[in-house]
Amino acid sequence: MLDLKNLRAAVRHQGGVSRRLFLAYGSALAALPLLGTRVEGRVNRQPKFAANPFALGVASGEPTDTGVVLWTRLAPAPLGEGGGMKPELVEVKWELGEDAELKTVLKSGTAVATPQLGHAVHIVADGLKPDRWYFYRFHCGGATSPVGRTRTAPESTATPDKLNFAFASCQHFEQGLFTAYEHMAKDELDLVIHLGDYIYEYPGAEKRVRKHVGPAKTKIKALGDYRNRHAQYRTDEHLQKMHARCPWIVTWDDHEFDNNYADLIQEEQPKGKEKADPADFLEQRANAYQAYYENMPLRPASLPRGAHMRLYRTTHFGRLASFQVLDTRQYRTDQPNNDKASDLNADALNPKNTLLGAEQSNWLKHALLKSTATWNVLAQQVMMGMVDLAAGEPKKYSMDQWPGAAFERMRLMKWIAERKVPNPVVLTGDIHSNWVNDLRVDDRKPEGAIVAAEFVGTSISSGGNGTKEPKGLNDLLAENPFIKYHNRQRGYVRCAVTPKAWRSDYVIVPEVLKPGGPAEVGAAFVVEAGVAGIKKA
């Protein structure tokens, strides 16, 4: 049996986590959810609840042409210890049909919700017909969940006429209301893609729209605190209703764990504050990853193993679009230049810098090579556009974004161009602002050929209401002629994709500090299949 005490001592002695210790300590952490709480082997088939156990709603995700993942998590007291659940195995029934009242059940079954996984349930509903809408719900202890709506993807060899989806990111619970989801729920969408910062790890702050639960002065670190933070976000009615409208494809960024972390490297701390113990940081990462899995409609293949969780994967929508879902946090090297905005100096251009890591990079190229889709989409976190943030000299680029791995980024663009990958589109979140970028191998050279389109979506709520016309906008656009649009208000991006064209509508929600904020399309852009370059709609 692995000795956690000795492993932690070895980690401290080395002053960090070597690959060998990462594997050994990660294996030990993977076993922790199975320890700590003794659970009897019997399954409680008729539990008694003091309140609705489905207070966190329902969700679906990971659609294929034959199936989808159905999710719920039992939590009669969402913000209480263990969600208000006893440490016991509980039977949950599920059913799926083609009518909203579920008068005719096509598929049904039972699952066991375990305390080790926060009494979350991940049902892989297979054997379904392609390109169909379905409805589903759960039952437990006499309680019935809300009905969710989901759909399967078209057949792998089919080319559907249209795909309607939206992408979103960055939903700080304290800094604004999730009004964007209220409007998104009115759109007839096939999918939602969430690009990260689903939760924020910070302690609660006073005099904001809402207040985080959890530790009063420190970031969340314990598994129970991460679970409760996810639960608090899930209690938002607009987020909950949007999850029930259609399947979601999700990936994380940094705040699901710790701001601006890079693999096993913690964010730089302010002067006078010590960085986390390496072993504690690894254990915290395991806690964050487990809570993320528990609260997302992910397939069992994504079940974390301690502090490691594979999240990069491919989702197809027939031959119309293939989504390569990326993870630019778990495998990346430390941000160069101490994560300060800098010119593309030797540190930023170091060939060893990576956001993807070698394994994910090879996987991505293999996936793009074998793709038969009209549109090849990278769903990822940080901006690829090499944006110079300063007018004149010296030039300043964000080291947390792709310019911090400029060599890898330019090599990837060159590879996509040389292989003639059809219609590459990059979807990005992270920075609480809207951008539309024509991507080249080197964006500093406007004479170069356009390789891909990048649509960067703003936040759902992070940053409050934001600004319609950012200060220095004209200078920014003059410095970076590849930028077609920039805005700093809240909202999401709604996309309509056909075999001939891609349209992105930038839906703006100018008021998120008060309920009932309106929504409007601030700008719209089109990419024609087979034609490089983004145009205004």
Short structural summary:
The chain is built from nine helices and 23 strands. The protein has 537 residues and is an alpha+beta fold. Strand 20 and strand 21 form a beta hairpin.
Q: In words, what does this structure look like?
A:
The chain has 537 residues and is α+β, with helices and mostly antiparallel strands. It has a domain of 31 residues. The protein contains nine helices and 23 strands. Strands 10, 11, 12, 13, 14, 15, 16, 17, 18, 19, 20, 21, 22 and 23 form a 14-stranded mixed β-sheet that branches. Strands 1, 4, 5, 7, 8 and 9 form a six-stranded mixed β-sheet that branches. α1 packs antiparallel against α2, α2 packs across α6 and α4 packs parallel to α6. The longest helix is centred in the middle third of the chain and has 17 residues. About 1% of the residues have low confidence.
List the helices and strands and how they pair.
Elements: H1 4-14, H2 19-31, E1 43-44, E2 58-61, E3 68-73, E4 89-97, E5 105-113, E6 120-125, E7 133-140, E8 143-144, E9 148-151, E10 163-168, H3 179-184, E11 191-194, H4 223-234, H5 237-243, E12 248-250, H6 278-294, E13 313-317, E14 321-325, H7 358-370, E15 375-379, H8 406-418, E16 424-428, E17 434-440, E18 450-456, E19 466-467, H9 473-479, E20 483-497, E21 501-509, E22 520-528, E23 535-536
Parallel strand pairs: 1-4, 10-11, 11-12, 14-15, 15-16, 16-18
Antiparallel strand pairs: 2-3, 3-6, 4-5, 4-7, 7-8, 7-9, 10-20, 13-14, 17-18, 17-20, 19-20, 20-21, 21-22, 22-23
Helix pairs in contact: 1-2, 2-6, 4-6
The separation of the N and C termini measures: 62 Å
Shape: globular
Q: Regarding quaternary structure, how should these chains be classified? A: single chain
State the total count of DSSP E strands: 23
